[in-house]
Amino acid sequence: xxxxxxxxxGIVPTLAGVVIATFVLTRILPGDxxxxxxxxxxxxxxxxxxxxxxxGLDLPLWQQFLIYVRDLLHGDLGNSILTGQPxxxxxxxxxPASAELTLAAFLLAVVVAVPLGIxxxxxxxxxxxxxxxxxxxxxxxxxxxxxxxLLIYLFYFLWGLAPExxxxxxxxxxxxxxxxxxxxxxxxxxxxxxxxxxxxxxLVLPATTMAIFAIAPLARMTRASMLGTxxxxxxxxxxxxxxxxxxxxxxxxxRNALLPIVTTLGMVFSYMxxxxxxxERVFAWPGVGSYALDALLSxxxxxxxxxxxxxxxxFVVVNLLVxxxxxxxxxxxxxxxxx
Length: 339
Prior knowledge:
By secondary structure, the chain is mainly α. It contains 14 helices and no strands. The chain has one domain: MetI-like fold, CATH 1.10.3720.10.
């Protein structure tokens, strides 16, 4: 059995633990969903009990859990009381919006942070190095919602350079035909230039907000890892042999510095999945984060449980991809070899 297969088998107990945790956490939340969803705040005890029976909240916890697991095995995440729709449908409808935002922010962070970290490592003590440290400190010091509100104030309210933060698309522009769920891709496929420009404009500020959050650890780790490899014996030997600076930096230093950078990339992407909840709320972004937050505030159990399961599954997949990237970068890791 290969190491890769063992890691894939390890996903099963991880997801099982997430299932148990999500069920328990939602059940210990303060408040009674039956009271919340009665039509009147002064509803009598009989009405509240009828709602509890309809929601299955009158059953013992162990029985509720067995029903929950049974439904999960059949691909049923339950129904949302707020929307009246199956949770799986709601998540599939909103997941592309969250994925588009997270991927755009992640790519922006990588494009800025990795070159910045490399440049800072190549010139310790320079203005670039000080700028890298300043950005890293600011990125980890400011919460994402504070950064988002600050960007809205500056670029929308004060300078008028950004559109009003009203979601993915200007409400007066009809959305393109849904193909992938990614508005930029769908508008490009349909040749709708107006929708593409609007979707891109709406994406800039929330993506930048999340990218600032991600740039700090990426730039800091890239700088530290590059400094370590640039001071190693094999780099000094390469310099002594007269190799070109570009070859030394890319082929020797950067390649050997990639392992901790890739690890940080996986961690940052996973953190961004959680950070998008606040960012989506600030920018009225119609993603799964704002959907789950609305459900949490309304004590709507099923969407919260579905959101946590989806995020856990994505987190597990990201970790597996990081492990696979290790094998590509360093075959000595033996991930795909026989155990």
